[in-house]
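Supplementary Methods S3. Complex input for the flavin-adenine dinucleotide-bound model.
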Amino acid sequence: MIDLLVAGGGPAGLATAIHGAKAGLEVVVVERRPGTLDKACGEGMMPHTVAHLERLGVAPLGMPLRGISYLDGDGRADATFRTGTGRGVRRTVLHTALADLAETMGVRTVHGDIGTVGQDAESVFAGGLRARYLAAADGLHSPIRTALGLSQPCQDRRRWGIRRHVQMAPWSDRVEVRWAPGSEAYVTPVAEDCVGIAVLTSSRGGFDQQLRAFPALADRIRGHAHGQDRAAGPLRQKARSRAAGRVLLVGDAAGYIDALTGEGMGLAFGAAEKLVKCVVAGRTDDYDRQWRALTRRYRWLTAGLVGAGSVSTIRSRIVPAARALPMVFAGLVNQLAA
Ligand SMILES: Cc1cc2nc3c(=O)[nH]c(=O)nc-3n(C[C@H](O)[C@H](O)[C@H](O)COP(=O)(O)OP(=O)(O)OC[C@H]3O[C@@H](n4cnc5c(N)ncnc54)[C@H](O)[C@@H]3O)c2cc1C
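Predicted complex, serialized as structure tokens:
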């Protein structure tokens, strides 16, 4: 019997599969999309995310990130990473690196929909396969989380993300977060000739419409070619638990707050490692507690910032406060970077 079946071949699923293979498990990934996978993402990896990838043995090509800058119409505040360097990496480059390593390590990938999940005392069955455990890494809207009754309704204001790649040389070695009254634009260098821009917003509308809130950025990228836009959301997704019997949730499927602080992939990689350790030790009953402990600091900081940003009087003071209190700003950025 397969030891670990993984639903979803995104970063969380592939990292889980690689950790599993390293631990000597027989792992099969079921991914419904063929080819090299792309996704709406800011593509900024914090230093802790890069460290997770190094532990896995993956070093995707990208651009070094030395810190985070907050900008509004009047100026900017800069915070430098103290614990290492981050990296801007295109999702397609990351997917190729993770998928190649997984294949080298003997992970089998099957293309198709995982479908309905069933389980008994000894095994779980899905996608025509039977395994000892199933890692549900099926993304933000995880059908498995919902089917198992683990999804929780969410009352928070809905936010979406939309991303565009612009063909031009990066002008900064930091992720620039530009704050407008109802949205933020993330500018991440991802290649020598490419800049990724992700807009996070609670209002609907295409990329060009969203860009109107950032006139200086619009001026800067005007006339440069760009790729196909990709969108995702609503971002906030709640799960009452990360485990139901032999099924364990990982990555965005496990619950997501917002892309505002850019730590989604790092948390997915950290949780993937913990999930596999729990499976190997036969302690899957402890996985939910370990997930909560791993993500607590990030969840609080991200929820706090999203909450502050939803109140217009506080929102307009975020960048001035970061400028006025550079040590506090750097401290908060480094809480998320480590
Ligand atoms: C706008 C935006 C900006 C972001 N910026 C950043 C950032 O800068 N840095 C960062 O670290 N994170 C960022 N994130 C978060 C990051 O993109 C996610 O945390 C990350 O993609 C989670 O990976 P995952 O593998 O859990 O999910 P996904 O990448 O969504 O992968 C899930 C996979 O499951 C597959 N799947 C779904 N259902 C099934 C099924 N039934 N059967 C088989 N396969 C299935 C899908 O095809 C998909 O490939 C951002 C997110 C958004 C939306």
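The first helix runs from residue 11 to 22. The CA atoms of residues 187 and 197 lie 5 Å apart.
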